[in-house]
Amino acid sequence: MFNFQAFTTALQLDNPTYERVKRSDLHDLVALMSSGNFTAPQVAAEMKRISGDKWKKYACTRAYLIAEVPSLAALVKASLVNFRTQTLTALPGGHIKHDAIWDSDSGNLQNLDHIFVRERVSWGAASLQAINYLDPAYRNPGQHFGVGNAVTSSGSAGNMSDTHDVKGAWSPTIFDFAGPEKVSYLCSQVYQYSDDNRATWHDIPNSTYEILRTVSVERGKIKLEILKQSVSPSNRHENLSNSLLL
To answer: Do both 109 and 31 map to the same domain?
Structure first.
């Protein structure tokens, strides 16, 4: 159970001259703890305002708080926030490259070293028009995970790149496509994070997309198209398309 005298003892162990010369980065936290009227979320919020480098100096103080304030251990972990697109780029060959970035609510990306980021892509049953042109793994409802060529990205990196192939799950039978109508298949994509060593995964807010791939015949050639667009609810309106004539 938290005891302010024990707390100040830990503080003095870390810094015997605490606040003798100037105001400390821990001043607001100490003021909150001295009030005796605090909640674990309030303590966590104050602790997250203090840099990781500063906590290296005040390791005993941090350890005491985490041990003696119930629920604080989970709350004080830095969280991934402000996931957003940096660039959506149409690449040669009909591909789309999606570069995304994010922040830490602590202000220090290194505090996200316990976070992993991945994508989850899912799809429904193929239409009768598309089924014979798709890889067998994509003809029935399913899902896969990963980010680009990696299984996960590190939260402390603060960024990831995800490239979408215009061919996607079309099988070699697509080279026999003769039209006349367009044929498409749709995938849903959401980026996810884990903060428990990949035991459980959670959708990242405002990170859901649809990826539509279409095949048609244009001027006697097979045309592959890809469209990636953000999905509501979202505070972004993003879309980009690309194509390739075979």
So the answer is: no
